[in-house]
Amino acid sequence: MTNITKQKLVAKLDEFEKSGLYLRTNFSLSYLTMYCETNSKYISYLIKTYKGKDFNNYINELRVQYILEKLRTCPHYKNYKMSTLASEAGFSSPNKFSMIFKKHTSYSPSIFIKCMDK
After folding, report:
1. Contact 60, 97 (CB under 8 A)
2. Is the pLDDT confidence value at 118 over 80?
3. Of the candidates 80, 70, 78, 85, which has an alpha carbon nearest to the alpha carbon of residue 112?
4. Residues 92 and 105 in one domain
5. Whether residue 64 sits in one domain with residue 28
6. DSSP code per residue over 34-52
7. DSSP-derived secondary structure for 51-63
8. Would you say residue 13 has pLDDT above 80?
């Protein structure tokens, strides 16, 4: 991969992060490769090199960061059920959402929200 290709793909990843496409429940590596107009080997390499994680952890972190931002900026999100937050962030189930949220924040979503209110 040339440096020019790397730069273009890193710019595409930045654009992707702003797009919110990762919030789709069925989002996959193949969809990201189509979005970036490249192959999965290049995308996986760039995510590993520039983001320091594999594809699944990268997408999950983007989703958790999205919900954290919504909780900070939109107070009504604190009243949503876990299933609604999970769906909003693109997770397939509330349990998976809670598990990944806790992995990234060290708190369950409900405890995190309660702490925000204090």
Report:
1. no
2. no
3. 78
4. yes
5. no
6. HHHTS-HHHHHHHIIIIIS
7. ISS-HHHHHHHHH
8. yes
